[in-house]
Amino acid sequence: MRRPADAVTGPLMFGHATTFYDGPFSVESAYRMIADYRVTNLAGAPTAFRFMMAAGDEAAKVIKGQLRVVSSAGEPLNPEVIQAARSSASSCATRRGATAPESHRP
Q1: Structurally, how many domains does the chain consist of?
Q2: Residue 71: phi, psi to the nearest 5?
């Protein structure tokens, strides 16, 4: 069974940082955080990814080629979001709970 603290301690055990944003979501703040902190493995809510996709390619260009993995939790990602994630990351996964991942590789 996974615990919420695993999001922090798991990456730290392997020498990786975990970044959390304590504030309201906006596309601008999401892209700024990803770019400024050089995030390569992004986990977020499907709704956030849909907002980011809707902002278009111009907004996403600041992180083009930076992401290695994009993961979401909760509801499955729709095909349009998966396609958009593939243009920014080498792997895209939907995680519905801790035991049922679905990978969407290019």
Answers
A1: 1
A2: -125, 145
Mean of per-residue pLDDT scores for the chain? 80
The whole-number average pLDDT for the span 44-52 is 90
- Pair 69, 90: CB distance under 8 Å: yes
Which residue range(s) make up the domain with 33?
19-104
Please report whether residue 7 resides in a domain: no
Residue 60 is encoded by which pair of tokens?
């996403």
Question: pTM score, two decimals?
Answer: 0.75
SS3 48: helix
- Which domain CATH number covers 98? 3.40.50.980
pLDDT, mean of residues 56-78? 86
